[in-house]
Amino acid sequence: MNILSAKNIVKSYASHTALVDISLEIPRQSIFGLLGPNGAGKTTLIRIINQITRPDNGDLYFDGEKLSPKHIHQIGYLPEERGLYKKMEVGEQAIYLAQLKGMSKNDAKIKLKYWFEKFEIDAWWNKKVEELSKGMQQKIQFVVTVIHEPKLLILDEPFSGFDPINANLIKNEILQLKKQGATILFSTHNMGSVEELCDNIALINKSKKILDGSVANIRKQFKSNIFEIEFSGNMMGFTNSLWTYGKLVDHTIDGELFKAQVQLSAGTKSNQLLEAVLPVVEIHSFKEMVPSMNDIFITKVNEVSNNK
Amino acid sequence: MNIINLIIKREYLTRVRKKSFIIMTIIGPILMAGIMIVPIWLSMQKTEKQEIQVIDESYLFKDLIPQKDFIDFDYPDISFVKAQETFYNSGYDAILFIPDNILEGGKTIKLFYKNQLSVSIEEYIGSTISKMMYNVLLAKNKVDVNTIRDAEVNSRFNVITEKLEETGKSKKTNTGLFMAIGIGGGVLIYMFIFLFGVQVMRGVMEEKTSRIVEVMLSSVKPFHLMMGKIIGIALVGLTQFLLWVFLTIALYSVASVTVLKNIDINQVQQKAEVLKVGADLNYMQMKNIEKPNVITAVWNDFKSIDIFTIFVCFLFYFLAGYLLYAAMFAAIGSAVDNETDTQQFMLPITIPLIFSFVIAQNVIQDPTSSMAFWFSIIPFTSPVIMMVRLPFGVPAWELALSMLLLIIGFIFTTWIAAKVYRTGILMYGKKISWKEIGKWLFYKA
């Protein structure tokens, strides 16, 4: 069963429409990427899931039940623009935020101690937040987001503001939490991390969902049957040998080495292409060009704006 | 409910633990007790006896100016010039020079000194000589001093105001005291609303600009967050006020058994009176009108006021007035991104408050005028104006109406403010206008 399903969500403001008929299915214990350019409506959707704003239309279901205020305690939310009370002490503040998520003071203390030790920030317990570096504050924010062991974690640009070491630390924690049963909804512009982490994605552009599905399927779907062959030898001979198997779409020359991108003709197998060129040139590498999420993102978003 | 308690607790504790709160709590009572104690203490300070050399060219005052325990007069038979030359070698503290034509009117007497003389010495000399001249002039023109004196004494009277109740009983009142209590209460409410209203606004802005607010809103409703802050700060204000009252009383009582231990209050008053009018000149003593001790009199009047009712009403207007305005301050804080933008929104909201403070001066002159009536009923001005009117007695139905409207008023402003708040708190980087805020009122949540 899905941990969260959104059905036909509509939200409009006085001057513009933020979301048009958005439906999402987020499977349990997976990492779901919510992608889209700035101003696409991601934050609005996330706020609706957090019950900060209400949709004009549409229904949300959490773990099979209609989403209601009682589910607040099962959701953890790390907003993109995040902050803490600057004048408050770290420990006191973390306990307060945990209590607001329904934890008892004692539970909160025990759990926080565990996380603070894990992130090596326990020495900062009695410091005021304003004395901490930004990275340090981000760690605390992450801790208070996950402290109540939410079933659904909503992370908006979780890696912004972290150095590579700490970003990696957070990434491993996210994977660890998934392993322990949590579902993560994760909004980002960082396509590298999408390929690395996400099981499923939805792409939102101009208030509409324009693409969704599993990362593997989407990439397969966007394959254009292009293979890259790296070789040395005669370029002309290579082109002639392609014959009807494929069409040269692009090539580069690097000294003795040629790099050719060949699109297979319909019905041709990659092995047939390889057999055709083998006698002519010396092959250094042969690989299929799978589009990156970044390419897909750009293609899809441009496609929509060009259609207008 | 549990959530809102948590919010109230945080708002309260973080403020009460602040250094500025603790300092204010300590300084306030010291200032107030100081205002009560210092004048009494000062007037009890024994001043060093001043030796005054009198050069009297009019020969009217020789050996006649009455001596006091703080002032001594000497009448050496030397010229003014000589006295000036030898002044710094003499033991005198001052030379009092009276010109020979002093009776002609409009003349000056001169007082030369080495070290600045106290105001009381100057006053004593001025008023004493003036009185003496008055008598001399009367005698010179053959007016019977006793006639004048009798006329003066017999034309003195006290005004005693008494409220005649419907039951036929009358109650002695003290208008001055009523004014003091009314204005004091009004000013306190005005200050409280302003100080703590602005704290609410700052608190909301702090949450907005530090971006904690989105995290908070994923756990609590905007209305709870706003009300938690408003109530938490109200409790801070109440704590501060009660601490002030308590500490002031404590300080004052400690001071009165230590610093002021040996002071007889009657003596203080007598002395003050003597300094003021030089009244106990032996040979021009007027018949004393029997006068009760002023402080006991005030205290008796104080007891005649229904102090309990006033205190309860004060607390009510103190809190309800604050609630009425605090919600609006919260709305402003939510709508803006920085402190400078608050100005344009604060002015229209604080105008009724400032206005009520201004008209309080008129209301106190005539607490039953129709202006006083209306502004003590309208919620935006009633906290200050009703407080000013209360000591003079307000019909029960007016008080009830005013309170009811104030409650309705703060429910209304809170309802409006909550609508602005929940939209504004998540709105960044937009220059907000009144029109924009107006639109927010009609947004769905």
Question: In words, what does this structure look like?
Answer:
- The complex is a heterodimer of chains A (308) and B (445).
- Chain A has 308 residues and is α/β, with parallel strands linked by helices.
- Chain A folds into two domains: 219 residues, P-loop containing nucleotide triphosphate hydrolases (Rossmann fold, 3-Layer(aba) Sandwich); 65 residues, 2-Layer Sandwich (Alpha-Beta Plaits).
- Chain A is 34% helix and 30% strand.
- The mean pLDDT of chain A is 89.
- With 445 residues, chain B is an alpha/beta fold.
- Chain B has two domains: 303 residues, no CATH class; 105 residues, Periplasmic binding protein-like II (D-Maltodextrin-Binding Protein, domain 2), CATH 3.40.190.
- Chain B contains 16 helices and six strands.
- In chain B, helix 11 runs antiparallel to helix 14 and helix 11 runs parallel beside helix 15.
- Chain B is elongated and about 95 Å long.
**Architecture of the largest domain in chain A, CATH level 2?**
3-Layer(aba) Sandwich
Structural class assignment of chain B: alpha/beta
DSSP strand content of chain A: 25-35%
Strand content of chain B: 5-15%
Segments of chain A where pLDDT lies below 50 for 5+ residues? none
Order of helix and strand elements from N to C terminus of chain B: HHEEHEEHHEEHHHHHHHHHHH
* Largest sheet entry of chain B: 4 strands, mixed
Rounded to the nearest angstrom, the distance between the terminal CA atoms of chain A is 37 Å
| Overall SS class of chain A | alpha/beta
Pair of chains with the largest interface and how many residues each contributes: A-B, 31 and 24 residues
Instruction: Write the H/E string of chain A, N to C.
Output: EEEHEEEHHHEHEHEEHEHEEHEH
